[in-house]
């Protein structure tokens, strides 16, 4: 392999090291692109070598594929994946030949697939199901596990004692641990505390907390008591919190006094000020409470029951366990209930696609207010693994050190975190060799960033993962049985059939995603919307007469069974891994002084990756457009009234917003205008 020495020097290698590497490259016996890259990542490309060298060699090895737009794999399954992964075991058990044949089996035999998944996860039943899948009411209202009773918490905390349930870092750099026995005891004290407080099974209890060992125990304890968790992200404004509480009407809320972000203490309990009738259980962030409690509120230590006996309330599979929220494409959030089948989907994806084994350490910086929070709890605990939690900002060096010190084996994230790590060299010098699998969700990935991430752990796969709150997991993802291509999905999720359709309803290689139900864990109802109207109404049958369910993502099928995501086909945006509607942002930003109309769009950066928030505005007559001032004012409105995590990338003035004949703003036109700067 002939590589110019100067190119490697330009990548940051000292001249002598560059010459030595060139000599070594000339001696490599293999020349086929995949074999050559396998040799490079196994023998030469260590994390100590500047990433520019990795990137340059990857582009040289696969230059023909890249020029043709074909997938170029950066990771290949090894002996471990091909022999000891859960998927390899399934392929062998079923006398199949590869992942593709396994996927076909899973969507052709959905009840058998689901039964095998339940058995593999060792789901605990009080009464076993008489039937896996009952379609008497149609695919929109499929009844899973008919006749069964269970409490999913018993599958999270079964038959384990001193094994580590949670590794965590809080306040200091020390990594602490909680055993399964200790987690079970705290869960029992929460569940019994709810019963002693007179809260009955089926009633709702809200949680607005950061991701901590206590919040995991509270989440499990509420469900163990037969109640329903209402999850609210701790980053929400008081107004956003109140909207969600009004929709769900919980009996009680668990909340922290304050939260610390980037060294600053931010109020949390204070957001309850206008909710005078909702009682709260307040957890202190540090050793002592930093606020004065209202008369009807209770300190965490006073609420906990003395009883350590965990007697979970058995319920039906369709009984609600959790209510999460998704903004969707309109201003008000959809309340999406998870029932007792949804955790099977979450844990199943962890088991099959992320290859989580007993004893693995699973880290995913998230929050119970977003679906990946409950997903993390179920995917780790049902698979007998350990949850790893840190109070560090995910983009910080401290968090990356925690990943190293906790021995994380499966690390999940949103692409914007990876971009920050790479640009700031946050992981330099750290040993991440214990990581077996990365995963990425929430946004479209930047391929260069994902190649960089693979290189940080000596080349491990990145499982791209896309689904939604209403799916309980992914519909498109990756597998450790197929080579991994940076930024691309390598397969549909097992048991999950979907189609790509164009505007006329015909199958295409680049189109809108439509689900073909049934799929276990897939929502069948909404709290504050008509489920049929949202997902099924006005959709023509599929090419084979199938009932189709809209989802709204745009996906492109590529050679070799790979897929590329192109974001949403509707007006929803994905900012920092959080879905938000354009309408929601626009309604708020019309408060900006001097502004008459506003349109919000998400624009991918030139190299790909997470969407950036761009605001177009029509100014009031006579009002001056001063970009810096207006952007600052708008950012403050978003920070105080919506979510401080949403950052405005740019603002633009426009004479009038482009609209359709029905007066709908043409956001795609605005996106084109911004990208081409044709203003």
Structural class: alpha/beta
Strands of the largest sheet, in order across it?
4-3-15-14-16-17-18
Distance between the termini: 47 Å
Estimate percent helicity: 25-40%
Give the rounded overall mean pLDDT. 93
CATH fold field value of the domain at 180-339:
Rossmann fold
DSSP helical segment count = 23
Q: Major beta sheet, specifics?
A: 7 strands, mixed
Mind explaining what this structure looks like?
With 679 residues, the chain is an alpha/beta fold. Among the domains are: 5-68, no CATH class; 180-339, Rossmann fold (3-Layer(aba) Sandwich); 572-676, GMP Synthetase, Chain A, domain 3 (2-Layer Sandwich). It has 23 helices and 30 strands. The strands form eight sheets. Strands 4-3-15-14-16-17-18 form a seven-stranded mixed sheet. A seven-stranded mixed sheet has the order 11-10-7-5-6-12-13, sandwiched between helices. It has a four-stranded antiparallel sheet with strand order 22-23-24-25, with no helix packed on it. The protein is globular and about 75 Å long. The mean pLDDT is 93.
Overview features:
679 residues, 22% strand, 7-stranded mixed β-sheet, single chain, Rossmann fold, GMP Synthetase, Chain A, domain 3, alpha/beta
